[in-house]
Design brief:
alpha/beta, 5-stranded mixed beta sheet, 4 helices
């Protein structure tokens, strides 16, 4: 018998300087979406200035998962924090595009590309008060 999609564990979120990397897991639904949201909000509260959500292992994103991701994007925008979605499959990118998420986040083909994009953005953006 095969293991249900939501049963697998995602890699532990990590930090690269002021950038938090959160792994979406294989199925973004209510439960995993709430985990993603909790991890992202914790990282925002701890002072991260950018979020990378890595969809490397994601096979499916349902409507509740999309709704929770929109909440994460809104929380990040309130804190002037950049969000990059990385490693999303072609199908997931099409879904995000169709639903308008790609107007609010940057898309990157890999986690490394997402980090490079954010670091480039940081070095080319003047900080308030400097």
């Amino acid at each position: 018998m095969s293991q249900p999609l939501s049963a697998s564990l995602s890699p532990t979120p990590r930090r690269d300087g002021e950038i938090a990397i959160v792994y979406a897991g294989d199925y973004v639904n209510k439960l995993s979406g709430m985990r993603i949201e909790r991890e992202c909000l914790l990282r925002l509260e701890s002072g991260c200035r950018a979020l990378v959500i890595n969809f490397k292992d994601t096979e499916l994103v349902n409507s509740i998962g999309v709704s929770i991701l929109l909440g994460v994007i809104e929380a990040a925008e309130r804190r002037e924090t950049r969000v990059v979605f990385a490693n999303a499959s072609r199908q997931t990118v099409r879904l995000f595009d169709l639903l308008g998420l790609t107007r609010h986040v940057a898309m990157a083909e890999s986690e490394e590309a997402a980090l490079a994009t954010l670091k480039d953005f940081e070095t080319n953006t003047p900080r308030h008060g400097h």
